[in-house]
Design goal:
about 20% strand; alpha+beta; Chloramphenicol Acetyltransferase; 14 strands; 12 helices; 6-stranded mixed sheet
Length: about 475
């Protein structure tokens, strides 16, 4: 039995009629080696049933609410758990092309998860061109972060078409505490909360300028710098005071989504890194800067200054799993879309990312955990939803979009004997973080790109996939010059 962290609970509380806090992935599989050349719901359900106890995602657990919402919800094993209730199948009409698949995934991504049962689902999508099969996997962000998502995939996937054997799970089912116990524990926590809140505010104060949007306020940067100096941390670089400019994807989002996916050659990206310096992540961010510049310029929206990007960062030590729940924060950084020269743009992206990382390391990125713990549990939900609705009307833009780069295995993996050809992450959009999200996942020699957007703001995100390919060619030429 475990309880949601304050960050986990925030992902639940922030949901509205237009914002759903689930993350997903689209796997493309070759099922030719399967019996009948087909991956079935029954086969995937059997796999989940056999390996659910190995997964970092609570595949068998549901949420139990505390009376009067006096405390954060608990997890407990669902006594009626049946994987086949979470796995569905649909088919695409001929020809089953990429556009049809992207449209189907967008509609699936619009649907919220049922909070009355374990917070995940899978959808097999048959009828893809070339005889392939797609698998759309969705899980609530309250249950899992990026590292735990990767560990869950590792538990379900195999290194060869022959599945691994695992010992059966003989653990006793976990149950949440009784209602009276949860209520009394919540009362005790509520009594101690004022002290915890004061301590959280004190720990957050020196790093207020790291909180998206807050650094734009006059005097915040100087105050944070002075407090860091008082703590003997003069070496912490000052955060640049940048404001997220208006764009067409920074308006209030609607209920509907659009999705695009594509891939880039990892060898090309490594060649660019070798020629221009920096890291694979620097190259990925520079590619996104160029693609976004082209997209905005084409519409006459290119701002005079840089965009502001949120970059999710794992807080797990040594990249391992360990504690359940979300161990994640977010780093904001300028993205030099305003610079026309590719070399200057690449250098600026590298420099801004380096500054952001040095500041993040100095503060340990703890501001998100501290901030989400300031309010008592009964107020967390109403205040989170109020903020999600109020901030856009105040024209406050903490960032323009989120870009995330998740490293993955560089060898082929198999699901129920079907080879995984690609895995494209599909993440979250909100009014506060922007109506556009770009997430990339490196796998088996490729960088798989998943883009999700609000349909009202970005009707065709596949255009950005094309711009990313153009950006790759541009940096390859620059690296060889």
């Amino acid at each position: 039995m475990s309880q949601l962290t304050t960050v986990d609970a925030t992902f639940l509380n922030a949901e509205t009629s237009t914002t759903h806090a689930h993350i997903a992935g689209l796997g493309i599989l070759d099922a030719a080696s399967r019996p009948g050349g087909r991956l079935t719901v029954a086969a995937v359900a059997d796999l989940v049933r056999e390996r659910a106890h190995l997964a970092a995602l609570p595949l068998r657990q549901r949420l139990v609410q505390v009376p009067l919402s006096l405390d954060r919800p608990y997890w407990e094993d669902d006594p009626g758990f049946d994987p086949e209730r979470h796995i569905f199948e649909i088919g695409l009409p001929a020809p089953g092309d990429a556009t049809q698949l992207a449209n189907a995934v967008a509609m699936l991504h619009e649907r919220p998860l049922d909070r009355g049962r374990p917070l995940w689902e899978m959808v097999l999508i048959q009828g893809l061109e070339g005889g392939r099969t797609a698998l759309y996997v969705k899980a609530h962000h309250a249950a899992i972060d990026g590292v735990l998502a990767a560990e869950t995939l590792a538990a379900l996937l195999d290194l060869s078409p022959e599945p691994r054997e695992f010992p059966a799970d003989d653990a006793e089912p976990q149950r949440a505490p009784g209602a009276l116990s949860m209520f009394s524990t919540g009362l005790l926590k509520a009594a101690a909360h004022p002290l915890r809140s004061v301590l959280s505010m004190a720990r957050t104060a020196p790093y207020l300028d790291e909180i998206p949007g807050v650094s734009q306020l006059p005097g915040v940067g100087r105050m944070s710098h002075l407090m860091q100096g008082a703590l003997g941390r003069e070496e912490v670089p000052r955060a640049p005071r940048v404001s997220a400019p208006p764009t067409s994807f920074n308006l209030p989002i609607g209920r509907h989504r659009t999705v695009a996916y594509g891939e880039l050659d990892l060898a090309d990206i490594k060649e660019i890194r070798k020629g221009l310096g920096g890291s694979v992540n620097d190259v990925v961010m520079a590619l996104c800067a160029t693609a976004l510049r082209q997209w905005l310029d084409k519409r006459g929206e290119l701002p005079d200054g840089p965009l502001v990007v949120g970059v999710p960062v794992s807080l797990r030590k040594d990249g391992g799993g360990g504690d359940p729940g979300n161990q994640v924060s977010i780093m904001t950084t300028p993205l030099a879309t305003h610079l026309p020269d590719p070399a200057e743009r690449y250098a600026a992206v590298r420099g801004d990312l380096d500054l952001g990382k040095r500041r993040f390391v100095a503060s340990s990125g703890s501001w998100l955990r501290e901030l989400t713990g300031i309010l008592p549990a009964p107020l967390m939900g109403p205040m989170a939803r109020m903020a999600m609705q109020a901030l856009p009307s105040l024209d406050l833009r903490p960032m323009n979009l989120i870009i995330s780069n998740v490293p993955g295995p560089q060898f082929p993996l198999y699901l129920c004997g079907a080879r995984v050809l690609g895995y494209y992450p599909i993440s979250v959009i909100t009014d506060i973080s922007g109506g556009l999200n770009i997430t990339v996942f490196s796998y088996d020699g490729k960088v798989d790109v998943g883009i999700v957007a609000c349909r009202d703001l970005v009707p065709d995100p596949s255009e950005l996939i094309d711009h990313l390919a153009d950006a790759l060619d541009e940096l390859k030429a620059l690296a060889k010059a």
